[in-house]
Amino acid sequence: MGKPPELASEILEYYLGGGEDARLRSGRGRLELWRTQDVLRRLLPPPPARVLDVGGGTGVHAEWLAADGYAVELVDPVPAHVERASGLPGVTAALGDARALDAGDATADAVLLLGPLYHLPDRADRVRALAEARRAVRPGGVVAAATISRWAAVHDLVRKGAYADEAVRGVADDVAGDGLLRSHPGSGFTTAYFHHPDEILGEFADAGLPGPRRYALEGVFAWYETLDAWLDDPERRTALLDAARRAEGDPTLLGATGHMITAALAPREPVTG
Questions:
Q1: Helix 79-86, helix 9-16: angle, nearest 10
Q2: Which of 17, 31, 42, 225 is least enclosed, having the fewest CB within 10 Å?
Q3: Coiled-coil intervals in this record (predicted)?
């Protein structure tokens, strides 16, 4: 069992509140969940491949991956998350740090980081986490990482109306400038790092993961006031998800999405230098 990192108190408090798990299972968050499923089901090798879900939280993604037939091993720094995820059928879970995985070299068919990069404000730590994923995945295996978009806080707080509050607006504007979200009760989230869509390419490259491809998850649709109604209607939901898939790689739209997945295949030859 790996030693979990020491999380800032506000980050730990946010996740112990359970809001993140609920966010993806209901309301507007369903678009992110369903689009994550859509992208990963196209990228991952077929089951029963071994998937290492790093920073997997309570198992929101591990649950459907296991149901699809994957052998899922979840790693997370929050003990309560590990306890809950351990109860999911087909999922094993353990405490650990994305920057120092217990997994052996080339032992996973895919490594997912669908949350860790959010809470690693230092670039060196993000590259280290990606390099650990590359080490743990087999040659030719998939490494996929989620990031929050640099302007997501501004877009979200304008939609909610909170951007009219000067203090909240200052927090959102700072994120758009340097990527760092300083914890503030009006932001709706906790201390985190928000990526410019281009900078993740350099982080993948420095971690020894060449040729990454980016996938916008929600696209511009995340900010539509009518989003819930579209997601609740099966016919309109199908049309919306299809549109999001067609727009997912458009470089002119990447910065407008709320979340993005970047994925690459681990090189088949040893990385030198």
A1: 30
A2: 225
A3: none
The mean pLDDT value of the chain amounts to 93
- What is the domain range of residue 179? 150-194
Asked if residue 112 and residue 227 are part of one domain, the reply reads: yes
Q: What angle do CA 195, 145, 43 make, to 5 degrees?
A: 135
Residue type, 176: A
Contact 142, 110 (CB under 8 A): yes
Cα 18 from Cα 15, distance rounded (Å): 6
Tell me the per-residue pLDDT of 14-52, one tens digit each, with 9 for 90 and over.
787 776 778 898 999 999 999 999 999 999 999 999 999
Q: Are residues 140 and 34 in the same domain?
A: yes
DSSP secondary structure letters along 215-252:
EESSGGGGG-TTHHHHHHSHHHHHHHHHHHHHHTT-TT
Do 59 and 116 sit in the same domain of this protein? yes
Q: Are residues 46 and 177 in the same domain?
A: no
Which helix (H) or strand (E) segment holds residue 154: the answer is helix 152-160
